[in-house]
Amino acid sequence: MNETALNTYIQNIIEMYSDTLMRIAYQNTGCRDDAEDIVQEVFIKLMLKPPFQDEVYLKAWLIRVAINLCKDHKKSFWQRKVDAITEDYPAVSPEQGEIWHEVRKLGENYRNVIYLYFYEGYNIPEIAKILGRKENTVSSWLGRAKKKLKLILSEGGYEYE
């Protein structure tokens, strides 16, 4: 692939997946600046890899790298010594923003499973592959996350079906 084609390839991927990766990074870090840094690092890692032929695999790889970088970020010296400043990430609608705020109250594994299942439309086997976990584990996390989210939403006055 020549340099122009490679630049176009990378630019298309950035345009297609930057919002998704930003939401994943933000929901794991709680800070827009940290999320932007993580997304940028994901794309740097992408530039160092040969082009992907399978778009489904590409998206899963991007999500997996973003989640791993978020985990590394949480383990960093700076993050352990400084309290994160949390902010609300802009949502498509006010209701989605309120629900997203409630989803952030869930644990990291539950948040990631809820996000990948409901927002990205992945099924349990696909999520298991992305997260490197067994399907039964992901299924359990999803079930528990739904129960916890239902409780949080009902306490907040939301109607949940």
Descriptive overview:
This protein is mainly alpha-helical. The chain folds into 2 domains: 1-90, no CATH class; 91-161, Arc Repressor Mutant, subunit A (Orthogonal Bundle). The chain has helices at 3-29, 32-47, 55-75, 77-81, 94-103, 108-119, 124-131, 135-155. The chain starts with a helix and ends in a 6-residue tail after the last helix.
Relevant terms:
single chain; 161 residues; mainly alpha; Arc Repressor Mutant, subunit A; 2 domains; 75% helix
Number of helical segments? 8
* Content-based structural category: mainly alpha
| Order of helical and strand elements | HHHHHHHH
Query: What does the main sheet amount to?
Result: none
Helix content: over 70%
Task: List the topology elements.
Layout: H1 3-29, H2 32-47, H3 55-75, H4 77-81, H5 94-103, H6 108-119, H7 124-131, H8 135-155
How would you summarize what this structure contains?
With 161 residues, the protein is mostly helical. It folds into two domains: 90 residues, no CATH class; 71 residues, Arc Repressor Mutant, subunit A (Orthogonal Bundle), CATH 1.10.10. Helix content is 75%, strand content 0%.
